[in-house]
Amino acid sequence: MKPRIAIIGAGLSGLTLARELGYHADIRVFEKARGVGGRMSTRYADPYYFDHGAQFFTARTDAFQAYLQPLLVAGHVAEWSGKVITLEAEKKPTKRAWFEPHYVAAPNMNFLCKMLAENCDVSLSTEIAPLAERQADGWHLTDKTGGPQGCFDWVVSTAPPAQTIKLFAGHMPHTTMFAETALQGCYTLMLGFNRPWENAWIAAKIRGNPLEWIAVNSSKPGRNSAVTSLVVHSRNDWAEAHIDDDMKASEAFLLMQLAAVAGIDASKADFISTHRWRYALVKEPQKAKPYIDEALRIASTGDWCTASRVEDVWLNAQSLAQALRSAVR
């Protein structure tokens, strides 16, 4: 009989683990959101589509390049290229160089996770409650409403560190690396205009402003270029200082900043929405191995191991998958 593994989180990390361990164990993935993707999610507001988390990814290791190669050939991943600029209030825009290929999933960023989720047992809109005591036959999981969700030999969390600590409750030491990892938040503005983008640039890095990034999402391969979909990210330190502020007040303030630095008038937008990411980015990149406790049979991985780049998250999941394959034999 195969061991039973519960994976918490249906982002790239959790779904990569599910696919890598599928031949070795019976896997069930739990996701509290309504869809897969995590920070590679896409917000749908037809005809506008917004990759409101991860904007792109690069490939610097042989392993990740090999993983992407068939996806590039199939058109599921494509290079996003074009003019990128730097914006600063009261200064002329300057061209910004990208020294390596920048890739996106097509037709939307969450498509990679949707592909990984195919033929996987994924329970959406299901938030797992903190673990109770382990029983003789394994971990008996319940959701936050108290509903039973099954018994598992292993529980693996790919949730952010604060959520993982809550999930594992008193079952782990306080000295683990992820218990000490700080993640910062981010506010994301999403603006839709019912007309094509009229400027030459596809993305902008912002300096000296609470905003940090503008992406013309509709300029990415496979997107609807007949309309304009903009994704605007705040600086992480600004978001962290205002993480519990009123959403509408934060939205209004950031829209004012957008007009001041980029001349984009939100009053002319046909769609506006704001998302708040509480755990968007590792504050200080580090080098740590995924957490695994073979005695209790709990484990965790995520960007806390290294950094929040998509490639790093994938590599960390591969590392934990290798360790778990050995542990569950």
Describe this structure in words.
With 329 residues, this protein is of the alpha/beta class. It folds into two domains: 1-32 and 126-181 and 290-329, FAD/NAD(P)-binding domain, CATH 3.50.50.60; 42-109 and 183-282, Alpha-Beta Complex (Polyamine Oxidase, Chain A, domain 2), CATH 3.90.660.10. Helices cover 24% and strands 29% of the residues. It has helices at 12-21, 62-74, 111-117, 161-168, 236-241, 247-262, 310-327; strands at 4-8, 26-30, 43-45, 48-50, 77-79, 83-88, 94-96, 103-105, 122-123, 139-142, 148-152, 154-157, 183-193, 201-207, 211-216, 228-234, 271-282, 291-293, 298-300. The strands form five sheets. The chain has a seven-stranded mixed sheet. A six-stranded mixed sheet has the order 9-2-1-12-19-18, sandwiched between helices. A hairpin with a 4-residue loop joins strand 18 (291-293) and strand 19 (298-300). The termini are close together. The mean pLDDT is 95.
CATH topology of the largest domain: Polyamine Oxidase, Chain A, domain 2
Reading the helices and strands in chain order gives EHEEEHEEEEHEEEEHEEEEHHEEEH
**Approximate strand percentage:** 25-35%
Q: Structural class, from secondary structure content?
A: alpha/beta
* Biggest sheet, spatial arrangement of strands: 7-6-14-15-16-13-17
List the total number of helices.
7
CATH architecture of the largest domain: Alpha-Beta Complex
Under the CATH scheme, which class of the largest domain?
Alpha Beta
Tally of separate domains: 2
